């Protein structure tokens, strides 16, 4: 007799999250998209609920899920004060973008370098044309103390189509309407774009794409 698994079962959701989280962490490590201490965290919003699962990428509890309500008052699982603090910023992103399913924060070296240099990431590398038009950018937020939500929310409102933001003097947050593996791949593409843009700057001025480049590129990605 086959036992059917209910995908809405909380235990199944946690187990699937931790499995996907482990795969996401390996992707980040493989693509060298983490800082030396592997700091960062990933969250997943539970469908139709004001709840999220979140886990840290480093430390003794790496990959162990904590379940929180959006009010941050009720939680289950391993939850440090640092993780609760950053979870508040994840919640602010989910509230501002209700369609978002997953959020990732890292200290990825090149994206963080852009944030520390006070520079938004503009689409000079082709990887960004999949998520941005040629006249858009990954915005730089104003500075805020640690995980202050206000600067990131302000950037989301000013750049309603942006899939990420660079928290000034800190590092990137990225999000998507898909699962945490898709959000992780987005972050990796952004980090590679930041790296290539930095390398290009050593040779001269990174060149912008011509008008209409993003639309033409997307046409090329659509299967006939």
TrEMBL record:
Tell me which domain of life the UniProt entry assigns to the organism this sequence originates from: Bacteria
On whether Metal-binding is a keyword of this UniProt record, the answer is yes
Keywords assigned by UniProt, alphabetized: Lyase, Metal-binding
Locate the Class II aldolase/adducin N-terminal domain: which residues?
Answer: 19-198
Report if keyword Metal-binding is assigned: yes
- Which source organism does the UniProt entry give? Pseudomonas ulcerans
Q: Which InterPro entries match?
A: Aldolase_class_II_sugar_metab, Aldolase_II/adducin_N, Aldolase_II/adducin_N_sf
The molecule here is called: Class II aldolase/adducin family protein
